[in-house]
Design a protein that fits this description.
Elements: H1 5-22, H2 29-37, H3 43-54, H4 56-64, H5 70-85, H6 93-99
InterPro entries: Transpos_ISL3
Organism: Streptomyces aurantiacus
Protein name: Transposase
Length: about 100
């Protein structure tokens, strides 16, 4: 990375964004976006930061609040997996028995 200053800069931005994610520091997101948007040598990072600004309230809430939809998403993925496994093999009763606990 010493030979590529762009990669070093990108690594720093990604690590600071990861810190915002893991520490639930959404209130610092506008500051991160401002720094990332001013980066001229990394156009992809600049565009990513500008796209975050489009829905800043939702992104900030997702990075700040302790609530998550992980459990719901897990159940949805499980149901989709069961549906793919049984595609065209049975009517409605068999998938219903596999999805709903007895």
């Amino acid at each position: 990375m010493a030979n590529c200053p762009e990669l070093t800069a990108l690594t720093g931005h990604v690590r600071s964004f990861a810190h915002l994610l893991t520490q639930l520091q959404g209130e610092r997101l506008p500051e991160w976006i401002e720094v990332a948007s001013s980066t001229t040598e990394l156009p992809s990072l600049r565009h990513f930061a500008q796209h975050l600004m489009r829905d800043l309230d939702a992104v900030t809430a997702g990075l700040t609040l302790p609530w998550s939809s992980d459990v719901v998403e897990g159940h949805v993925n499980r149901i989709k997996m069961l549906k793919r496994q049984m595609f065209g093999r049975a009517g409605f009763e068999l998938p219903r028995k596999r999805v709903l606990p007895a």
